[in-house]
Design goal:
By secondary structure, the protein is mostly helical. It has 10 helices and 4 strands; from the N terminus they run H-H-E-H-E-E-E-H-H-H-H-H-H-H.
Length: about 290
């Protein structure tokens, strides 16, 4: 995590320096743009996630068992009880969001609640609560907002080149818009890979957190296998409806794994199971071969 974060930070420093030199943009305007984007993303993350997924916050009378599980696990994790939401979809999944433990939301889908045993649901909730404890929304916001800026600069540079007459630098030669687009593309591509790596590390950490919180890594192993196997039975139309939440979900809502692990925001199922099996052995629990 630290090594990948340092690489990402260095990349963004180089990107900012190039923008300062090429665009001659002052430090204060650039900081205002970057900080403004980051603050907006940070403070609206829970609302945007609930809106994108169609999740509905429910009270204890509407989902008493789910609330009881979340309350007990939150007490064990020593964090305030998050809000609880239900997503009306048959796709079996869950996610957590919120800028800090006081503003967190934990959501499960109808499909997850129907398909998993209560112990498996608890293991999934332990995974999601670990994301809250580790402040992963903050981590991913800090990791991704410069990539978002690079994407915006790429678009601005492209359209500026089309409608701005292809202005060149002081020495002539390569048009400024082309330099902006080239640098933005390189920055976005490298940051995309690094952010995916950070996301995979956070999933491993959340798996471990669930195993330690519940004391039963085998339940999370069983839950991950059930979710993955059931995903192949869900119609592609339903998977596409929730695909925008894949980075948040405990298991991406797609029938097949991403071709390359470098491009994936979640580790391969086999590696997650292997690490959980190792944790189970450390805890002295029997692991099926």
């Amino acid at each position: 995590m630290l090594f990948t974060g340092v690489l990402l930070g260095l990349l963004y420093v180089v990107f900012a320096l190039v923008l300062f030199q090429v665009l001659n943009v002052g430090l204060i305007p650039m900081l205002l743009i970057v900080v403004g984007l980051a603050v907006f993303q940070y403070f609206t993350s829970d609302k945007l996630a609930l809106l994108a997924s169609g999740a509905k916050v429910v009270d204890e009378s509407q989902a008493p068992e789910l609330h009881a599980m979340v309350e007990r696990l939150a007490a064990m994790a020593d964090i305030p009880k998050p809000r609880v939401a239900v997503v009306p979809t048959d796709v079996p999944n869950a996610f957590a969001t919120g800028r800090n433990p006081k503003n967190a939301v934990v959501a499960v889908t109808d499909g997850l609640w129907r398909r998993l045993d209560k112990e498996e649901v608890e293991a999934v909730l332990g995974h999601e609560l670990t994301h809250v404890v580790n402040r992963d929304v903050l981590v991913m916001t800090l990791a991704s907002f410069f990539a978002m800026l690079a994407g915006l600069m790429m678009r601005f540079g492209f359209y500026g080149g089309i409608f701005g007459g292809g202005r060149r630098n002081d020495q002539g030669g390569i048009p400024i818009w082309l330099i902006i687009v080239a640098v933005s593309i390189v920055t976005y591509f490298i940051s995309y890979l690094l952010i995916r790596a950070i996301s995979r590390y956070r999933e491993y950490a959340a798996d471990r957190g669930s195993a330690l919180l519940t004391g039963a890594p085998e339940n999370l192993m069983s839950a991950l296998q059930k979710i993955s196997s059931q995903m192949t039975l869900i119609p592609q139309r339903d998977l596409r409806e929730v695909a925008g939440m894949n980075a948040f979900f405990i298991v991406p809502a797609r029938a097949k794994e991403v071709a390359s692990e470098l491009l994936a925001d979640h580790p391969p199922l086999e590696k997650r199971l292997a690490r959980l099996a190792e944790i189970a052995r450390e805890m002295g629990k029997p692991v099926a071969p």
